[in-house]
């Protein structure tokens, strides 16, 4: 009987732990480290501006430094179309939920800077006009203003 109870409890806890979304995890991490959340909606294999955004800004060392320096927690909500880039059903549902909440118009690329509470601080529709240094500088400046 104890073994059955233990097995049931382990199953319940593993489902609960697995059910935590990237946004919930990002909010928790951002709150703990006084970081911001950068949420990017992209079509990684069909949206030319999305591909350029990732190549020229989000995929650069300067951008990755924002993550390693605890400035942001980055979430990419991707909507690929090619079979070879297919996402898991769980990730598809999570991305769709994020889109329902933050990108109901279906803009690609669409980038949102949020605080740990989920409040929108800044949005970028389409490919940002600035280069990576200006883009990351703007994020750092917004973060500085958020500090108590």
UniProtKB/TrEMBL annotation:
Cleavable signal peptide: 1-19
SUPFAM superfamilies, A to Z: Thioredoxin-like (SSF52833)
Stretches assigned to the Thioredoxin-like fold domain: 30-132
Keywords associated with the record: Signal
The keyword Signal is assigned to this record: yes
Gene3D superfamilies documented for this protein: Glutaredoxin (3.40.30.10)
Name of the protein: Thioredoxin-like fold domain-containing protein
Organism: Chryseobacterium hagamense
């Amino acid at each position: 009987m104890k073994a059955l109870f233990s097995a049931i409890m382990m199953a319940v806890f593993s489902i609960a732990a697995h059910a935590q979304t990237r946004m919930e995890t990002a909010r928790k991490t951002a709150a703990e480290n006084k970081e911001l959340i950068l949420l990017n909606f992209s079509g990684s294999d069909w949206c030319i501006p999305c591909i350029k955004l990732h190549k020229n800004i989000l995929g650069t060392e300067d951008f990755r430094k924002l993550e390693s320096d605890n400035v942001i927690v980055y979430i990419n909500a991707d909507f690929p179309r090619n079979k070879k880039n297919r996402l898991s059903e769980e990730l598809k549902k999570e991305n769709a939920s994020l889109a329902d909440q933050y990108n109901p118009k279906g803009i690609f690329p669409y980038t949102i800077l949020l605080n740990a509470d989920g409040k929108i601080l800044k949005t970028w529709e389409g490919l940002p006009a600035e280069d990576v240094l200006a883009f990351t500088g703007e994020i750092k400046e917004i973060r500085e203003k958020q500090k108590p």
